[in-house]
Write a structure and sequence with these properties.
The chain has 300 residues and is an alpha/beta fold. The chain has one domain: Rossmann fold, CATH 3.40.50.1820. Helices cover 39% and strands 17% of the residues. The protein is built from 13 helices and 9 strands. It has a 9-stranded mixed beta sheet, with helices on both faces. Helix 3 packs across helix 4, helix 5 packs antiparallel against helix 6 and helix 5 packs antiparallel against helix 8.
């Protein structure tokens, strides 16, 4: 019998710290580097801070590294923390490839090679979690600890897939910032925490040359046939060697807590934690709780 998942973070409101409400204020007090990594010819935008064991943070579909601004400096106290714009996303190059999970996995391998790391802590949210899980199964020698944060890749819900496709394509095709805002609000339990600078950051990504064509390719995983052949399997997840944390939320709009528990059960020895009062972006919505859970797992 599976033990019930521990729940944490009994908050009345999500993110009650006004000093963390803007992206800039979350990093303004520390040292960090925003730069590009040549990942086997793919110019890849990265932000990094800190020294020590390497930790790589992977955002979700249509996202960008600003998803982790509220986590960067706290993690940099203990790790060389690097968040990237994944293949085709944000300000990273947008090659005319298929954008199936293996494409992201191989790009991630090239990033890790380019920074000279043999082994990393790997943490991914949504699409990033899907990529991280497959990477850990394919390259077990390259992953120390693994965090799957509201990870995709286990189910194919037609309603969620269509919502993601519609919101994402509308946002890149429309010159109206409100379409970008709607895409971000989908992620949050409390849409009021979608700040103007977060909208600006994503809007700038969505206005990049070639982004419309790239997004059409990126959305291939919302096509049922393509998604089904990319889904994580129980056999694949059972091969993961890294110590793993599956982190879920009570109000994830893409998959229920039961899906997260099922994912956790498939990874040998995985720890399962549910954060309260968050949607699909717990690292942004409740950074204090996320940072504490995440750092405790990676360090202990």
């Amino acid at each position: 019998m599976t033990n019930p998942a521990p729940h944490v973070g009994e908050h009345t409101h999500v993110n009650t710290q006004p000093e963390l409400r803007s992206l800039w204020s979350a990093v303004a007090g520390g040292e960090f580097k925003l730069h590009y990594i040549n990942a086997n010819g793919v110019r890849t935008r990265a932000i990094e801070a800190g020294e020590g064991p390497v930790q790589i943070l992977l955002h979700g579909v249509s996202g960008h590294l600003e998803a982790y601004h509220r986590n960067l400096l706290e993690h940099a106290k203990y790790f060389r923390t690097i968040a990237i714009d994944m293949l085709g996303h944000g300000f990273t190059d947008k090659p005319a490839t298929t954008y199936e999970i293996i494409d992201y996995v191989e790009h991630l391998r090239d990033v890790i090679d380019a920074i000279g790391a043999d082994k990393v802590h790997l943490s991914g949210e949504s699409l990033g979690g899907w990529v991280a899980a497959r990477f850990a199964a394919k390259y077990p020698e390259r992953v120390d600890r693994l965090v799957l944060n509201t990870a995709g890749g286990l189910i194919a819900d037609p309603k969620v897939m269509e919502r993601l496709r519609t919101l994402s394509l509308n946002a890149v095709r429309s010159p109206d910032r409100e379409a970008t805002r709607k895409r971000l609000e989908f992620l949050m339990l409390d849409p009021s925490i979608v700040t103007e600078d977060l909208v600006d950051a994503r809007y700038a990504c969505f206005r990049r040359p070639g982004m419309v064509e790239a997004m059409e390719r990126i959305m291939c995983l919302q096509d049922m046939d393509i998604r089904l052949r990319n889904l994580l399997t129980s056999e694949e997840l059972a091969t993961i060697k890294a110590e793993t944390l599956v982190l879920w939320t009570t109000h994830d709009p893409t998959a229920s807590v039961e899906v997260g528990q099922r994912l956790s059960n498939m990874v040998p020895g995985a720890k399962f934690i549910v954060m309260e009062n968050c949607g699909h972006w717990p690292q942004y919505e409740d950074p204090d709780t996320f940072n504490r859970i995440h750092i405790d797992f990676l360090r202990n």
